[in-house]
Amino acid sequence: MRHPVLAPICAALALSVAACQKPGDTDVDRAVQDVLASDENSLNDIMMTVADPDEAIRYFRRLLDEDPDKLAARRGLAQSLIRARRPTEAVAAWAEVVRHPEAGNADRVNYADALIRVGDWGKAEAELDRVPPTFETYQRYRLEAMVADSNREWAKADSFYETAAGLTTKPAGVYNNWGYSKLTRGDYRGAERLFVDALTYDPKLFTAKNNLVLARGAQRKYDLPVIEMTQTERAQLYHTLALTAIKQGDVAIGKGLLEEAIETHPQHFEAAVQALRALEARG
């Protein structure tokens, strides 16, 4: 997303104000700089959120070529690398950010997030430990919960997930992650409740739907839950449930669910067809 009009507008504004400026009129100088800074901040926000990630990376790298010490540009580059799904490069970029003398606690949390994306849990935990407990944000507690999960510190994980859920108006992702944590511990009923909570906040979150079916299947509940789903999603959930049943030794039920998946899907469902053929070949 390019904004070629911004520079000419800002330049014209600066020239027009300067034309009627009296010598020593520092208030006017300050006003011009405030407008220019505001425009740049707005463009930075656009680049970090809605612009094409690769274009944003090029934009922030140009800014850093002009001014290598510009913290806003370093943050923008690091965030854009995350959006572009280039976590290894993002880790290096966030490391540069946190070394900047003006970096803050939010920067360190973002650095920890990037470290988790590349699987460096130990370093991520160390970075989070450097953030004071008074810095209470949704992202901080979400990451703390994930780190506690990785350490199998279940009580801490539950506490952090609960805190994170209370710090956002969109907790579906937190409930889904928390439910998956319960699923890996074998607490299938607890996981089921949390996946339902996730879908209460975001009925379209397919990951939570699939996880809900896994939690129910682990309890040998082989009927689909009453949730919002498309026809394609229904077929995919039947497939997930079928594989869960087969894994648990309920082969006849699994076969029936695969047949349901194939019949339900609006198109050819290759994965279910292959699974059914493999099952039938085993006799």
TrEMBL record:
Q: Outline the TPR repeats, range by range.
A: 37-70, 172-205
Q: Which UniProt keywords apply?
A: TPR repeat
Q: Which InterPro entries match?
A: TPR-like_helical_dom_sf, TPR_rpt
Locate the coiled-coil region(s) and give their ranges.
none
Record Gene3D superfamilies:
Tetratricopeptide repeat domain
Q: What name does UniProt use for this protein?
A: Flp pilus assembly protein TadD
**Taxonomically, what lineage is the organism?**
Bacteria, Pseudomonadati, Pseudomonadota, Alphaproteobacteria, Rhodobacterales
